[in-house]
Specification:
binds zinc ion, alpha+beta, rod-shaped
C-alpha cells in the first residue's frame, strides 16, 4: 500500500500544485514556520492500452512539519459531523494520531466539555502525548495570544493535499495534440505501416518543399484522431510485416549508442528512441527511423558486395613476363600530374581478377573487352584488393563490347 503522503500527480496538473506550494510557503515564511516541501520520488509513465498514449505522473511525497508552540504542535484537524460523534480526520503529513480520534466527537480535553463544535484540533507534545482541543480553548491551552495562525498551518497542508489529490485525475477532453506522448514502439509500427500502405516516406524538409504534410505529422495526427475517436484514417490495422520491420529498426536505433562515431542525425535519433516515448517535438525524427534503417541496411549490403568483389580478385601472370590477356575495361580515369596526364585503366578478367595500367597516349573505352600483350610489372594489394599491375599494353585483337 502506498504511503498516505504519496500522490501521483498528472503532469498537466503539476504546475498548479507547485504554484500552490510556493504560495503557501510565502505565508509560512512570514510567520517563521517551517517550509512545506515535497520530493519527486519517481516519474511514472502510464500507457493507455487502447490509444497507446503515454502520460507522465509525478510520484511525490509531501513533507510538512507543524510549527511548535510552547512544546505543542498541531497534528490534526477534526471535523465532527453533527448529531454523530464521527470525525472527518485530517492529519498533517508524516504524523499519526490514535484511531480513537475518529470516534471522539467534538470533545475538548482541555475544558472537558462535550458541546458540539464543528472543528477541533489534535495537538501533540514532545512526550508524544495527545490532546484534543476545541478552537475556542486553543488560546487558553497554549498560553499564546494568537494560536490560530498555527492552526492555519494545518489548513494549508490540508489545502495542499486536496490539490495533490485532485492532481491525480485528468480531464482528457482538454488534451491537445501538442501535449501528447505515445509509446515509441507503437508509433514506429504505425509509421512502418503507413509507409507500406502509401508507398512513400516524406521527411519534414521534403514535405515543406512540396507544401505537403510530412509522414511524421500525418501519423501523429492519425494517432491523435484515433484517440479522439475520429475515424478518418489510412491505417486500419497494422500488419505483422510492419511490426517486424519496426522492431528491427528500433533495435538498430538503440544500438547506435554503441557506435563510436555518430553524426548529429544519428545521435538525435538514438536519444529520441531511448526514452521509449514519442512527443510532438520528436515525432519527425522518430518517423524517419524506418527509412534510415532501410538505408543503412542497403549500405551494409552494398559494402558486403563490394568487399566480396574485392576479396575475390587474385593475382595473375608472372612478374617480369610479357603475356597475352583478354580483359574488360571496367573503369577509365584521366590523371593529371607534374609529369603530364595519363590514363588509368582498370581491367577485369573473366574470373573477376583486377589489373591496372597507366597509359600515356593509348586508351581503351570503358566496357570494351580487349586482347592485349602486356608486361606484368607487379602484384600489389590496394585497399584490400589484389591487383596485377601491367605496363606496355598493346592490343592484339579487338573483340565486341560486352553487354
Ligand atoms: Zn475547551
Amino acid at each position: 500500500m502506498n504511503n498516505i503522503n504519496e500522490y501521483l500527480i498528472h503532469e498537466s496538473n503539476f504546475p498548479a500544485f507547485e504554484e500552490k506550494v510556493e504560495k503557501l510557503n510565502k505565508k509560512a515564511i512570514k510567520l517563521n514556520f517551517p517550509a512545506i516541501t515535497f520530493e519527486i520520488l519517481e516519474t511514472v509513465v502510464n500507457i493507455d492500452e487502447k490509444t497507446k498514449r503515454a502520460e507522465n505522473f509525478f510520484k511525490i511525497i509531501l513533507n510538512g512539519e507543524s510549527p511548535k508552540l510552547n512544546g505543542w504542535k498541531f497534528i490534526a484537524r477534526l471535523e465532527t459531523i453533527k448529531e454523530q460523534k464521527h470525525n472527518l480526520v485530517f492529519v498533517i503529513p508524516n504524523e499519526n494520531i490514535p484511531l480513537a480520534y475518529r470516534e471522539s466527537g467534538s470533545q475538548c480535553q482541555h475544558c472537558n466539555s462535550k458541546r458540539y463544535r464543528k472543528y477541533t484540533y489534535v495537538l501533540m507534545n514532545e512526550n508524544g502525548e495527545y490532546k484534543q482541543v476545541g478552537s475556542s480553548c486553543l488560546k487558553d491551552f497554549l498560553g499564546h495570544t494568537d494560536p490560530h495562525n498555527y492552526a492555519k498551518y494545518l489548513e494549508w497542508m490540508e489545502q495542499l493535499t486536496v490539490c495533490a489529490k485532485e492532481g491525480e485525475t485528468v480531464d482528457r477532453g482538454s488534451i491537445s495534440s501538442h501535449d501528447c506522448k505515445y509509446e515509441l514502439d507503437y508509433f514506429v509500427y504505425y509509421v512502418a505501416e503507413y509507409i507500406k500502405q502509401t508507398g512513400y516516406f516524406l521527411s519534414k524538409s521534403k514535405a515543406e518543399q512540396l507544401e505537403r504534410s510530412s509522414t511524421g505529422d500525418l501519423v501523429w495526427n492519425e494517432m491523435f484522431n484515433r484517440m479522439m475517436k475520429q475515424n478518418d484514417k489510412i491505417v486500419q490495422s497494422i500488419s505483422d510485416e510492419s511490426i517486424e520491420l519496426a522492431n528491427k529498426a528500433i533495435e538498430w536505433a538503440k544500438e547506435l549508442g554503441n557506435k563510436e562515431k555518430l553524426n548529429d542525425y544519428q545521435h538525435n535519433l538514438y536519444l529520441s528512441c531511448m526514452t521509449n516515448l514519442v512527443d510532438y517535438r520528436s515525432k519527425g525524427i522518430v518517423a524517419s527511423l524506418i527509412t534510415a534503417y532501410q538505408y543503412d541496411l542497403e549500405l551494409i549490403k552494398k559494402k558486403e558486395v563490394e568487399k566480396q568483389e574485392k576479396s575475390s580478385s587474385q593475382y595473375f601472370g608472372t612478374i617480369g613476363e610479357r603475356e597475352i590477356f583478354t580483359l574488360t575495361v571496367v573503369k577509365k580515369s584521366h590523371i593529371e600530374s607534374y609529369y603530364g596526364s595519363s590514363i588509368l585503366h582498370v581491367f577485369e578478367d573473366e574470373n573477376g581478377n583486377i589489373a591496372t595500367w597507366f597509359s600515356s597516349n593509348k586508351e581503351f573505352e570503358e566496357g570494351e573487352t580487349v586482347t592485349i600483350k602486356a608486361t606484368v610489372k607487379e602484384h600489389k594489394e590496394y585497399r584490400d584488393q589484389k591487383q596485377t599491375i601491367l605496363t606496355r599494353c598493346t592490343e592484339v585483337k579487338k573483340s565486341k563490347k560486352v553487354s
